[in-house]
Amino acid sequence: MSMTIQLRDPAAPVGFAAAGEKIPSVARGVSQAAASVRRCICVSACATALLAWAAGQGVLQAETIAVPNGSFESPTPPPGFPVNTSIDSWQETPQPGWYDPDVFGGVTWDQLTGVFPNTAPGEPNHIDNLDGSQAAYLFAVPGAGLFQDYSSTDWNHPSPLHLFDAKFQLGMAYNLTVGVLGGSGMTDGASLQLSFYYRDAGNNPVTIASTDVTYSLANFPTITQLHDYQVSLPAVQAGDPWAGQNIGVQIAPTSLGGTYWDVDNVRVQAVPEPGSLSLLALGFGGLWLARARSRQSA
After folding, report:
1. Nearest CA among 235, 259, 145, 153 for reference residue 193
2. What is the pairing mode between strands 260-272 and 134-139?
3. Read out DSSP for 25-40?
4. How many Cα neighbours within 13 Å face the side chain of 17?
């Protein structure tokens, strides 16, 4: 039996041979790490390119959802009348039991809301930034509001017309914007609520996002300018009860104010959530990396 013994070079420092033996494996590790970094950079670049393409194609742009009679242009007042207490496409909130017209100067519940034409330019009460030629008024009485959804009615149609046919879609955020003006003589602190809602299984409206507009001279220094107020609803998630349900919007005073609110130019926008597309891009990148590793192992 023979045995071969390999002696360490006496001139070599202790541990040098062992370290030298590890150099090829370390080099391979560095090379693999560099390749991973390059792949990550490539995936990031692809995700960025996908987002840029989506923005260029309008995928990430807000979508305007038409609100029927959102500027309250119909109907017009009858000849000789300054207002019309009927409003097309909008349903008035039902009269509560506590409301007594005798207590409010004989004003019936249906007279608390209506439409009116703008006055001529140069008149002291001409609204400079009205959208169209008419707006709606709501007396500052709690609950005297207007609402609209797929199943709502109006003064001339006891059955729904289904004109406002839009739903809360997954991954989309929503904005409701309304031009608002507090009338002359409004009580300081009087409030008006703008809201998104949906109907539950019992057909009951359920508010899911709202904004309270509070009157003050600082907020409404003039009766000739509408001011935009917005309700924002975060991106709809799969577990949200309103996901896939019809969109509802409501405008309603929430306190006594002694006078009226003017509202106009009701707008709804659906805004794609950028994070959703980012996750999609990264998901594709993850699949690409997995396939690349699989090929490398093979």
Report:
1. 145
2. antiparallel
3. HHHHHHHHHHHHHHHH
4. 8
Q: pLDDT digits over 187-231, tens only? A: 999 999 999 999 999 999 999 999 999 999 999 999 999 999 999
Q: What is the pLDDT of residues 62-107, one digit of tens each?
A: 899 999 999 999 999 999 999 999 999 999 999 999 999 999 999 9
Residues above pLDDT 70, as percent of the chain: 72
CB contact at 8 A, 220 and 272: no
- Count of C-beta atoms within a 10 Å radius of residue 62: 14
The predicted model gives 21-27 an average pLDDT of 49
The residue to which tokens 């039902």 are assigned: 94
Give the residue among 116, 120, 105, 152 at the shortest CA–CA distance from 250.
152
**Residue type for position 296:** Q
70: closest CA among 269, 270, 248, 264? 264
Structure token pair of residue 149: 């959804």
Amino acid type, 199? R
Reply yes or no on whether the pLDDT at 174 is more than 70: yes
Cβ atoms of 291 and 163 closer than 8 Å: no
- Between the two ends of the chain, the Cα-to-Cα distance in Å is 42
- Collect all residues with Cβ–Cβ distance below 8 Å to 93 and sequence separation of at least 6: 143, 144, 145, 146, 147, 250, 252
Kindly report the number of other CB atoms within 10 A of residue 118's CB atom. 17
Phi, psi for 284 (deg, rounded to 5): -60, -40
Question: What does the alpha-carbon distance between residue 238 and residue 273 come to, in Å, rounded to a whole number?
Answer: 14
This prediction's pTM: 0.76
Residues 6+ apart with CB under 8 A from 99: 109, 141, 143
Residues 226, 229: Cα–Cα separation, whole Å: 10
Cα–Cα dist 269/164, whole Å: 13
